[in-house]
Specification:
Elements: E1 5-10, H1 15-31, E2 34-40, H2 46-52, E3 57-59, H3 71-94, E4 98-101, H4 107-116, E5 121-125, H5 132-137, E6 143-146, E7 156-158, H6 165-173, H7 175-186, E8 194-198, H8 205-220, E9 224-228, E10 241-242, E11 248-252, H9 258-264, E12 267-270, H10 274-283, E13 287-289, H11 298-309, E14 312-314, H12 322-333, H13 336-349, H14 354-366
Parallel strand pairs: 1-2, 1-4, 2-3, 4-5, 5-6, 6-7, 8-9, 8-12, 9-11, 12-13, 13-14
Antiparallel strand pairs: 10-11
Length: 370
């Protein structure tokens, strides 16, 4: 039996970084002959998401890079050196042949530790506008992989965004076939339109507020709502509600298996994080995106390929009133033919098999495959 190829994967903080990490890890595991170690912090979602995926997580101390001249900026070199030493110890203990990073501030010390050891670095950038860690280290990476064409990174190779095995399986099998079981799982009616709402792993106040204020009107229109609030945002008095024509409102704090939620829905209202954009496009779920209004505008850029293809619409956060939400949702869900066209257009945009492509590149650089 040949020895396993050791690979270190880094990423954390949000679902946007963790979903492609888990998907790539699943693809690497399926190839066989690998030993995987994931690096994260003690603060982010990785503390629950990575172990739940059956992966080993090693925590290191890492801090966001300050964007302003503060005391934290003065302390940065000392903190970065400490984080690099911890990351280097993980790499050495694992006997890693290659390091794979998915962005987030935990990736930077791992990249730097790998670079000092002359190990190949594979980075994957999820967003159309890259994060700081990937921008800084892209020139030193052996492979720079991106989800969207035109992402401004040197040597960028567009491969799409790796999606988890459950999402890929849903795309292969079709949402229509999986829908009855998925709806039953969430206590949704077997017939009638369903709107899936999620502001991401941390939730989104503007989305939650607009949905709450338009909830009664949507239910009265016969539209069921599966509302994922975000773990910290679910109101204590939240409860299942019933409306006209058997429609239901089902509030949840968090859904671990989003593939089931995608299967249950006919339309999704969501932020335009890269993972959400890629996963919904892969399974052909039409979307109404509300891009995050802060940051560098990457979520607007993320949504544009689907909008141009006719697979999604955008409402800017400042325009997300209950009235605007009600108009858009009832219009889209009231036209099944147009929804079918949006679904087909979505699946024409996102490249399939990204996780397998990334895994093959990683193994090639590690000397464990081609």
């Amino acid at each position: 039996m040949r020895p396993s190829t050791s690979i270190v994967l880094a990423g954390g903080g949000t679902t946007g970084h963790l979903s492609p990490l888990v998907a790539t890890a699943q693809a690497l595991t399926a190839m066989g002959g690998v030993s995987l170690t994931c690096v994260g912090t003690a603060k982010g979602l990785e503390t629950s998401v990575i172990p739940a995926a059956g992966l080993e997580l090693v925590r290191i101390s890492a801090d966001p890079l300050p964007r302003r001249l503060t005391l934290d900026l003065v302390k940065l070199p000392f903190r970065m050196l400490a984080s690099m030493r911890q990351a280097g110890a993980v790499i050495d203990d694992a006997g890693a042949r290659v390091v794979v990073g998915f962005g987030g501030y935990v990736s930077l010390p791992v990249y730097l530790a790998a670079w000092r050891r002359h190990l190949p670095i594979v980075m994957h950038e999820q967003n159309a506008l890259p994060g700081l860690a990937n921008k800084l280290m892209a020139p030193r990476a052996a492979a720079v992989l991106v989800s969207f064409p035109g992402t401004p990174l040197p040597k960028a190779q567009c491969v799409g965004l790796p999606v988890r095995a459950a999402v890929a399986a849903l795309a292969d099998g079709g949402r229509a076939e999986a829908q009855p079981e998925a709806r039953a799982r969430f206590g949704l009616p077997p017939t009638g339109p369903v709107l899936l709402v999620s502001g991401g792993s941390q939730g989104a106040r503007s989305i939650n507020t607009a949905v709450t204020q338009s909830r009664d009107a949507l239910l009265n229109a016969g539209i069921s709502i599966l509302h994922v609030w975000g773990s910290a945002n679910l109101p204590s008095d939240s409860a299942v509600m019933r409306g006209a024509q058997g429609a239901s409102y089902v509030p949840l704090g968090y859904i671990e298996d989003m593939a089931q939620a995608y299967a249950a829905a006919d339309l999704m209202l969501a932020r335009a994080g890269a993972a959400t954009v890629a996963e919904t496009a892969t399974v052909g779920l039409p979307c109404l995106f509300v891009p995050f209004p802060h940051g560098n505008g990457e979520q607007v850029r993320n949504a544009q390929p689907l909008v141009r293809a006719g697979a999604a619409e955008v409402i800017m956060d400042a325009d997300l009133t209950p009235e605007a939400l009600l108009e858009a949702v009832t219009r889209l869900l009231g036209d099944s033919g147009h929804l079918a066209e949006m679904s087909a257009a979505a699946q024409s945009v996102m490249q399939p098999g990204a996780a397998q492509v990334v895994a093959k590149i990683v193994m090639s650089l590690a000397g464990g495959g081609s």
